[in-house]
Design goal:
The structure is a single chain. This protein is of the alpha/beta class and 122 residues long. The chain has a single domain, classed as Transcription Regulator spoIIAA. Helices cover 42% and strands 29% of the residues. It is globular. About 7% of the residues have low confidence.
Length: 122
């Protein structure tokens, strides 16, 4: 294969890749605030690839919020790093005089949260 043919094949390969449909979002965070309470509703899988969106949402919580609720109803997966992030968020919330609540986890997530000590409200 000549150099020109290889360049054409590479260019065609790049064009094919860019024409592929994009994948649906694997994770999303919805935020709502109401009278001293902020609710972050988590959707999808929370892992190393998606944690930055979660950390960004946590960092954006208004300083006036006395209660931060993580609604886990639609969270399908959480890895060990995510558990660490939630643990640190709870510790930081307590230092700031806030309450961090985990709402409506699935049975599987409830078990993990119990085993890690995060299920207990403080």
């Amino acid at each position: 294969m000549s150099l020109t043919e290889r360049r054409s094949a590479r260019r065609l390969s790049k064009e094919t890749r860019s024409a592929r449909p994009s994948l649906p979002a694997l994770f999303a965070v919805e935020c709502s605030a109401n009278e001293g309470e902020t609710v972050l509703t988590l959707h999808g899988a929370l892992d190393i690839w998606t944690e930055q969106a979660f950390v960004t949402a946590l960092d954006a919580v208004d300083d006036d919020a006395q209660r931060v609720v993580l609604d886990l109803t639609d969270l399908s997966f959480m890895d060990a790093r995510s558990i660490g992030i939630i643990h640190r968020a709870r510790t930081l919330a307590e230092q700031r005089g806030r309450e961090l609540v985990l709402r409506s986890p699935s049975r599987r997530l409830s078990r993990v949260l119990r085993l890690t000590g995060l299920a207990a409200s403080r």
